[in-house]
Structure formats: structure tokens, C-alpha cells
């Protein structure tokens, strides 16, 4: 294709303060510490990509992502953005473990390519939907704060609330019950982030049932490699189980499907990259498993890409793409329109994100 060869590559840290500290079973974060890559094509179009490393999940940090992307600069110059699958295959063979850096490159390539085609990314991926509804995550806070937050979010229009669990059975039960009290009409999803042993996960669900709470979904209850343990949890309950950290690759998705240990797969682009995420979605559907989409701590660039992905493919039962950054602190304009709790896709080409003028 004319004009789609890469002529320049720029890489920079992307640090943005969160609205509030975000605590999960593996620790707390106060800001995103990501990396931005910009690819400039011969036709003058720029494509943007974001790496969102989270070391407890994907083994990367900002420093390793920066180093990986810097080492790819010379390789990328002269490559054609239209060949994004070929480039993705090569980078995976060289930087297998550096998935967030690879995802950033894929994102920038596909953003630049779809801008050249003058088509929104979600339409390039199939255009199944142009509006999706997200949940909102309440992290590990006191029951009093959780109840207050739940009431506030329900009043804003959220119909599904998710909370982090996996640190303390007693505290987790109290928080979930408080959320249900604060927002009795909201559906509740749970994410243990690998925090429980199988027996504790089963007991946790039993305690919730005793308190009149039935979650819509229980995400990654046990450590990622314990598929037998996850199946034990799945077989003990009618609550659907989602595999998250257990699935980074298409091969992982096959293993989860063969083990029959989960009802849903949570796709996160920062675990797999965009190209492999398409394969994971296809495997899940072939195995009659449901789809969920989630994210790391990302700016509207990374988050918007996941919105395009879910809307383009369609059929995602659970959307977990809630923003945690005040728009005034974002270094970007554009992207999918957001009005709690809905994302609406626009006609802007590519991801639709532009850099703010500094």
C-alpha cells in the first residue's frame, strides 16, 4: 500500500496519576507508569501505541518495556504498517515475554494502518456493535467505603459492579455484602487475582450465599497454573468462573478449554497483544466459552483500543473497561465517547485518539 512504510519511531514514558490509589490482591498503584510509542508513516499519518506493564501480572515494568521498545526502533523503520501480522509474528519470536511492549507496537501499527484506510478500528474488526456498557471496579477498601462507593456508582447509572477479593475471607465477605447493601439492584462480579486456594474460594462463595449474595462471575479464583484447582472451584458452584491470568496466549486458552475449568475467558490486550487476542476469542467461542474483556491501568489510548476490540468483535458478556484517570490529566483527546457507564464508538479513523498540544 502506498505511503504506509514507517519513517520514524519515538518512544517516551507515560506517567499519569490515578484518581485514587488502586488496590488489588497483589498490591496498590498510585499512578500509571506506562510507555507511549509513536510510529510516523510516509503519508504523514501517526499511529499511537501504549504499553501498560504490571509486574505482578505480566512480569514487565516501565523500564523493561522502554528497553524493549527502544531495541525495536531500527527494526521497525522501513517496515510497512499494513504488514502488522508479519511484524507481530517476528516480534513474538524475539521478545516472547515482553508482551506489553509487543502490544504497544501492534496498537500503533494498526492505528496507523486503519487511519490510512480512513476507517474506525472497531469497523475494521467487524463493526458488530457501536455502543458497549462497562462495569465499574471497587478495589480493596473498607466495607463502609465500599457501600458508599456502590451507592454513588449505582446513582451514576452503573448496573454491574466488580470488586477485588483474595486477601482475607472475612474482609472480602464483608466488602461484598456491603456493596450489595449499597447497590441492591446492581449485579456483582468478583476478581480474586489468584488470591485464594481452591478450598478457600469454595468456602468464600458459600459464605456469600449464606449472606444472600450470588455473584454474576468469579474471576481467577486461584493461582494461574492451577487449572485442576480452578476446575474444582467451577465444579462446586453454579457461579460462572472466568480465567484471567491463566490465559496469556492462544495455547493457554486451549489448555483452559481442554481442562474445562472456566466458563469465560477474560481477554486483556496487555496479556496477549491484539493479534493473539483475536485467536483467543476464536478459541473461546469454538469451545462454547463466554468472553469478557478487561484492562490494566491504562490511558484512554489503551483503554480505547480495548473498547474498539470488544465492539468490533461483539459478543462480550462482560465489559470491564472502567476509566480511573481524570480526563483533564489525560495527554490525549478523542477516542470512544464515554458517558457513565456507556462507551459510544465514533466515526474517527483508527483508535480515534490524538495527542494534546503541550
Automatic annotation (TrEMBL):
What remark does the entry make about the cofactor? Binds 1 Mg(2+) ion per subunit.
Alphabetical list of SMART domains matching this protein: MR_MLE
Per UniProt, the keywords (alphabetical) are: Isomerase, Magnesium, Metal-binding
**Required co-factors:** Mg(2+)
Q: Which CDD domains match?
A: L-Ala-DL-Glu_epimerase (cd03319)
Kindly state a single biological-process term from the GO annotations of this entry.
peptide metabolic process
| SUPFAM superfamilies named in the record | Enolase C-terminal domain-like, Enolase N-terminal domain-like
Q: What family does the Swiss-Prot or TrEMBL record give for this protein?
A: Belongs to the mandelate racemase/muconate lactonizing enzyme family.
Q: What is this protein called?
A: Dipeptide epimerase
